[in-house]
Amino acid sequence: MLVFAKIKSLQQKIKSLKKGNSIGFVPTMGALHEGHLSLIKQAKKENNIVVVSIFVNPTQFDKKEDLINYPKTIDYDLSLLKSIFCDIVFTPTAEEIYADNIQSQLFDFDGLEYQMEGKFRDGHFNGVGTIVKRLFEIVKPHKAYFGEKDYQQLQIIRKMVEKHLIPVRVIGCDIFREEDGLAMSSRNSRLTKKHRTVVPFIYKTIKYAKKKFGTKNALEVTNWVENEFKHQPLLKLEYFEIADEETLLPVKNKDPKQKSRAFIAVFADKIRLIDNISL
Ligand code: PAF
C-alpha cells in the first residue's frame, strides 16, 4: 500500500498505473469503520486499482467545534486499509488542497442543496462540492463510491458531476448498519455509553414509519415520528421528512409511480446523527 501526502507524487503514481487499469476512488474523512470498508471492498471488486483519500475537509463544517472534535485516527485507519489490501492512500494537508485560501466554491445544485441538511448546515454542501470536485480533478478516477447514509450528499455529487461534465461514475452503496440497526458513522465513536444504548431507536422509528406510510400520509407519519421522539429524553429530533429520491422535494402521499425516502436527523447530546430509508 502506497501513501502519498503530495498531489504531484500521487498523480505521478496514478499516471504510471492508469494504462489499461480502472481506478476506483473512495473519498473519506478518516475515522474509518465497516461502512467505509464495504465501499472500499466494492471498489476493489469493480476496479484494478483503489485509491482512498483521508482528509477532514474544513470547508464543509459549519461549526468550528464539530471540525475540532471530528475523530482523527490516522494510524488505525492506515492499518485497516493495509489489512484489506487498499492500493493507494492520499492523505493531504489543508494547505496541499487549498493553498492559502481555505474557502468553498459556490455551487448551484438545482435546489437539492436547500432541502433537509441544507436548512440546518449552512454552506455544508458548497464545502462538500468543493472538496469532491478537487479530489476528482486530482485522482481522475473512473468510478467513485459514496454511502447512501449521506443520501443528500450522494445526490448532490451526482448533480455536480452531471452539471460540470466530470467524467466519473458515481456509485451509491447501501447503508452499513450495526447489529442493532444504527447506521455506521465516524461520529458514533463519540457517543457516550448512555446515548449509544438509545440511538438504535432512530432506525427502529424510520423502519416503523416506512410501514405506516403504506396507510397514512406523510404529515400523519411525520406527526407520529415527532411524537415518538418526545418520549426519548436523550434524543432530540431535528427533522423527519419524506421526500422524493431524485428531487429531494417533500412528498405528501404515497404514489406507486414515485420513489420516496424517509430522512431523519437526530441529536444524541451534541452528536448529530442522520439516517434514511427507502419507502
Ligand atoms: O462523506 C464524507 O465523508 C465527506 O463528506 C466526503 C465525501 C469525504 C467529502 O469530504
Report on this model:
- With 279 residues, this protein is α/β, with parallel strands linked by helices.
- The chain has 2 domains: 2-173, HUPs (Rossmann fold), CATH 3.40.50; 186-278, Pantoate-beta-alanine ligase, C-terminal domain (Pantoate--beta-alanine Ligase, Chain: A,domain 2, 2-Layer Sandwich), CATH 3.30.1300.
- 40% of the residues lie in helices and 20% in strands.
- The protein is built from 11 helices and 9 strands.
- It has helices at 7-18, 34-46, 64-69, 74-83, 94-98, 117-120, 124-139, 151-163, 193-198, 200-212, 218-230, and strands at residues 2-4, 23-28, 49-54, 88-90, 143-147, 169-173, 235-244, 260-268, 271-278.
- The strands form 2 sheets. A 6-stranded parallel sheet has the order 1-4-3-2-5-6, sandwiched between helices. It has a 3-stranded antiparallel sheet with strand order 7-8-9.
- Helix 7 crosses helix 8 and helix 10 (200-212) runs antiparallel to helix 11 (218-230).
- The longest helix has 16 residues, at 124-139.
- It is globular and about 55 Å long.
- 37% of the residues are buried.
- The mean pLDDT is 97.
- The site of pantoate has 10 residues, from strand 2 and helix 7.
